[in-house]
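Reposting from the mailing list since nobody answered there.

I have sequence plus structure tokens for a pair of proteins and want to know whether others read the tokens the same way I do. The first protein:
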Amino acid sequence: MTAYLIRRAFQMSIVVLLATFAIYVLLNVAPGGPLSGLRLSADRRSRVSEADIARLEAYLGLDKPMIMRYLTWLIGDDWLGSDWVYVGLAQYSELDTAKDGTPIVKVDRKTGEKYYTFTKHRFWADPGVAHLNPGYNLWVWGKEIEPSVFQAEEIQVKPPATAEAPDDVAITGFIESQNRYTIVIRDLNDNFYTIETAPETVWNFPPGEGKPLPEDGRWANISWLTGPGGLLGSYASFHGTTQGMVRMDFGFSWKLAPGQPVSDLIMSRLGNTIILMATAVIISLVIGIPIGVYSAVKQYSKMDYVATTFAFFGSAMPVFWFGLMLILIFSYQFKQWGLPFMPSSGVSSVREAPPGSFLALLNATPGSLIDRSVHIILPALMLSLLYMAGWSRYSRSSMLEVLRQDYVRTARAKGLFERVVVTKHALRNALIPVITILVFDLAGIFSGAILTETIFSYPGMGRLYFDALGQSDWPVVMAYLFIVAVLVVIATLIRDIVYTIVDPRIRFS
């Protein structure tokens, strides 16, 4: 079993790698690029300027070669241009400080408690070219070794905009490009100069930028590999602070919640989706599979015809139509008829329940458990009926096939009770195909039901994905697809393990 799990873990890693590559490439090779949708907005208030487009392109790494863009998206860009790596089990935590060196204090909105914030580092770049970006203003002290080529002895990065350069400064300008230790700058007269730097060059950065390596902690020198002068030094200009999808750094949202980490956005919706999907799955399992088994055992009975008709109806019924019908009947028509009506959207109330509603009948307070439970009834009912239709069909067809097997006839011939034959001999084998379908709903429990959450305005993962696609919020979209891909391959492993529990004949030794 151990050898099998190791082999499967390797296979799963390859599958996830290929899936992430497909996700990234497809979103980047779309006509017009990943930011094409941002240019199509007709609303002046939501239109994105070209300066914002350029900033987002730099954030996404669209200035890099495709394979390098993919690698930095997957494993981060903090290792590019880095001179040191932290060898501790946890990352190095650095206290966030203001420009004057005092710690930054934040206040919890819920509790009012004050706390310090920390930044974690696995890689560290010494003050130098790895911290530079195109457009930075430089003051360079040094000597001209060739026409328009300067050997830098000291460099001031991003000097104050209102300050005048000292008389002893050799050259000033804005960064155009950088490759290893060589920088190309452009002055105000559009003249280009080449700046040659060296490890001995003195760098002066604004407070909080380009800080020296912390004295505490266990750091290993990797400048020979990823530093500006190392084997991968030609990519030092791509140095950043992102840690990549593999290290659970999903970046920041720029449309749905500008500046908010995608991980926080996902966590704010994940709980709602898990409650909704788990409720629907449990209800449909408890009802759907027994109906399918009973329908197979009582084949061609009235119950069988009813269950089969329901299954075909549930499978063929459009999700968006059924959801709208539920809202129309239980929310709108019930209100017109004077019956206690159900809420049609949201996950909880934001104000007192309206008179005549089901919430008012239960005297539910906004945000209470009763309030949240009532809000989940309609979307959970819709999902559970759809799942129930599918699982009753799967369990019925699987059970019919097993009941025709010779070992079931032998069990009956031995005089065993029909209940024992069905539950002990037939059911366990009939559940194997059902398990194949069931385990893949693990990804669905995370990803949610896109149409259902959209119709009921339910703030879950499905609605988040729908909104992110509509507003071209690609960090959210790619994080969503990445996590779903990981959950799908995990579900396949769980499926194989559950097989060994349900069917003792299956072993992976």
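The second protein, same order (residues first, tokens after):
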Amino acid sequence: MNSILIATIIVLDVALILQLLQMTFAVWADPYISGHERSFMMIVGALVLVLLAQGQMDYLIGEKLLFTGMNPAPAATIVSACGYVIRPVVIAMFVYLTDPGGRNIWIYVLSGINALVYIISIFFPIAIEFDESGRFHRGLLGYTCAVVSFLFLGRLIILAIRSYTRNRRIDMIIPIFASAVIIGATIVDMLMTHDLPVSFLMVAIVCGCLSYYLWLHLKFAKEHETSLLAESRIRIMMSQIQPHFLYNTLASIQALCAKDPPKAAHTVEIFANYLRQNLDSLGESELIPLKKELEHTRIYTEIELLMFPEILIDYQINDQNFMLPALTIQPLVENSIRHGVRGIKDPSIYITTRRDSEEHMIEIRDNGRGFDTTDESRMSGRHIGISNVRERVEKMCGGRVDVESSPGKGCTVTIHIPVKKEQ
């Protein structure tokens, strides 16, 4: 081998090692990557460094630059088996990083079988063998590593394509590209007639590590940004709801002061108890028990019924062991009273809870004026909008809000909250 080629290989080796070390430091320092994924990437970096060392030793033994004057077969078998064991493990970790919650147990089983085949080959040549001159011979199971690796890479591409199709996330192109490069490099290495100290596959795996780090960083940075935006929007919505609720309650008390002072005094007492017991939950940005939300609603409706006793409020609570966003039911009941049933004959509001195997359901139904659900302006204005409640339910607990209404036929709002699966 001429000196220029040797120098080129040394430079390439150093560049690959520096890239891996740089990636390891970046993973360790990156605030966005979670602890579990960070540990996996650190392990992947260490394994790839071992592969780099294995490739160099494999070449030096084959060129008789190591173990000169003795039989190189045992050392060559051990070194080569190490590489065949590690390569599928690295790709299996890429699969895990792409789909950490998936059912990929078969990948771990195949990784174990592959490792067992090449460990046995150290003692019995079922997959690889080296003769006394250091020449490589492939055994009956010699393609186990290649078959297992291609299966893993296929799974990797399928997962990435499926995720891209489902979520339309452009960053999923990164694992697809990394997998395609590794497959291409493997094919090129198989077509090569001469061994080199650094294989195309080795370069592709190092590039794959860097690609996966970039992908994880983009993924977690995007999730962090989305979480901050959602939290910010929830806080803004809560800040809008709280003054509205307090204003309407005080307005009711003010009206009672002129109409019925004793009732006004009683209402102040009720409201003071409400504030003392439940003011903390008004500022909740987390989920609260249904019982606490119903307590908000009952106190609010008690205050309203002092002024409008003709309104029927009927509770049919058949399911109450679940959590929901604070101020979810009360604003909808407030809408029903103020914009639906007030002033009509026989005004009625029914609050019902029930559940099935998949979700908890809260229904707020009235026989009021109703409205056109296609009119977005009806959802806004100075009163609490249904759209406001809908957004908090969707973002905070993955539920949904359905509205059925038409002019003159009342309104039914149904809140659907997924049943929390037991861990």
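Reply #1 (J.P.):
I read it the same way you do. The chain has a mean pLDDT of 82.
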